[in-house]
Amino acid sequence: MRMYDIIANKKHGKVLTKEEIEFVVKGYTAGEIPDYQVSALLMAICFQGMTAEETAILTMAMAHSGDMIDLSSIEGIKVDKHSTGGVGDKTTIVLAPLVAAAGVKVAKMSGRGLGHTGGTVDKLESFDGFKIEISEEQFIDNVNTHGIAVVGQSGDLAPADKKLYALRDVTATVDHIALIASSIMSKKIASGAEAIVLDVKCGSGAFMKNLDDARALGRAMVDIGKHVGRNTVAVVSDMSQPLGFAVGNALEIIEAIETLKGNGPEDLTALTIALGSRILVLAKVCDTIEAAEMQIKEMFANGKAVEKLKEWIGLQGGNVAAIDDYSLLPGAVHTRPVYLNETGYVKAIDAEEVGKSALLLGAGRETKESSIDLGVGLIIHNKIGDKVSKDEPVATIYYNDDRRLEEAVRTLVEAYEVTEEVVSKNTLIYDLID
Question: For 333-369, how does the pLDDT look when each residue is reduced to its tens digit (9 = 90+)?
C-alpha cells in the first residue's frame, strides 16, 4: 500500500477503505509518513469529503492509536457529555452532580482550557485543595461508591488526533465537519464512553458560527456513534451570547452552585435540564425524556444535587465549606462597573469578544504556559432583548491587575449592539439530533 495512491484516490473522490485509513493513521502516528503527504490527503478530504462510514473508521483508528480507558469495572452504562465550547459554559459543574444524584454513574475526564477562560478542571481548582489527579483505583471506587468522579485527562489518549490536529492547524484544514467530528468522538471513545450526549454550540462565541454548520457537525457525530455502537444524542444550543451571566473561573463556580440551589440563570438551568434528561435516558435510569425531566427538576428542588456536589468536592480534597461561603473561593481585589453610552434594547452580544475581555483580565490562557487568575472575570447584567440605559452598568468587571483593564473594558463595550427597537429573546435550543 502506497500513500501516493491513497492521496490520489481521495483527490478523485473515491471512498477510502478501512485498510487505507488505518494505514494512514498508524503510519503517521509512528512517524513513517511525512507531514507533506498527510497534508495533501487532508486537503483532498476538505475538497472531496468523507462518507459517514469513512468518518467512523477514522474515528476508531484515532481512538485506538493510544490508551483505551477501561471502565468495565464501573457498574451501569457510562454516559459522557461533551460541549464544543463557548463563553461562560460551566454546564459540567452543574450537570455532573445533578445526574449523579439521580442515579447515573459519572466517570468523566475533562481538560484544561486554552482561550478566554479555563476548562472544567481549571474551574474546579477554585475549590482549595481539589485534586484533579487521583489514582485509577480511587477514581473507580469514587464512581462505584458515590456515583461521581471528574479528573483531568491522563495517559496517552488518541495521540493520532493530537498529531493530526497540529497539522490541520497549520494547513487550513481544521474546519472540515468530518475531521472535527472524528477528532471529538475519538477522544470520547478512548475515554471509555458507552453513550454520549453532545452540546453543539452555535453562534458568535462558538466554533460553529451558523446553524447549518452546527447541525451538520451534530449529525456527523451522531452518525459516528451509530456506526461504532455508541448511543449518541446531540443538542444544538445557542452561543450568540454568554451562557448564564458569569465569565471567569471562580465566578462561574458560584453561578453553577447557585443553579444547583435553584437560583441559577434561566438559560443555564434550561440547558442543564435538556442535557441531563437525555443522559438519564441513555443511562437507562428513565424510560422517557418527560420522566427524566421530572426527575432532574426534583433533584434541583429537594437539595440532593447540592448534597452530591458537596460529596464530590470533598471526595477529591476540595474545601466543601466554599459551597456555602463564597469568600473561601478565589476572588478579585477590585471591581469596575461597565457602562454603554446609549439607551435602548440589546440587539446582539458578540460572545467571543466578551470572552476576550475576560482573557485580558487574566481569566484564561493565551499560551499553554500561561497561568490563570481564578478570581478574575466579569458578570454581565443584560442579555439580548433586555432594555439598557446609559446610566446603568451592563456588566461588572472583577480584576486584580489593571495593566490591560482599559483594553478589557473597551472590548466588552464593543461586544454590545443596542437598538431603539424592541428585541425578542434568543432561542436557547435550536435542534435535537438522535
Answer: 999 999 998 999 999 999 999 999 999 999 988 777 7
Instruction: List pLDDT tens digits, range 114-144.
Output: 567 778 889 999 999 999 998 889 999 999 9
Nearest CA to 372 among 128, 156, 112? 112
Catalytic residue from among 82, 90, 123, 310: 82
- Strand 195-202 relative to strand 231-238, pairing: parallel
CATH 1.20.970.10 fits 3-49, yes or no: yes
Q: Where are the domain boundaries for CATH 3.40.1030.10 in the chain?
A: 79-323
187 is catalytic: yes
| CATH number for the domain formed by residue range(s) 79-323 | 3.40.1030.10
**Domain 329-419: top CATH class:** alpha beta
154 in active site: no
Per DSSP, the three-state class of 140 is: helix
> Is 176 an active-site residue?
no
Q: How far apart are CA 284 and CA 282, in angstroms?
A: 5
Question: Has this prediction a pTM greater than 0.70?
Answer: yes
In what order do the strands lie in the sheet containing 344-349? 387-388, 344-349, 416-419
Range(s) for CATH 3.90.1170.30 in the chain? 329-419
Tell me, yes or no, if 168 is annotated catalytic: yes
For residue 336, report the phi and psi dihedrals to the nearest 5 degrees: -145, 125
pLDDT at 6 over 90: yes
Q: Which of 161, 199, 238, 350 does the annotation list as catalytic? A: 161
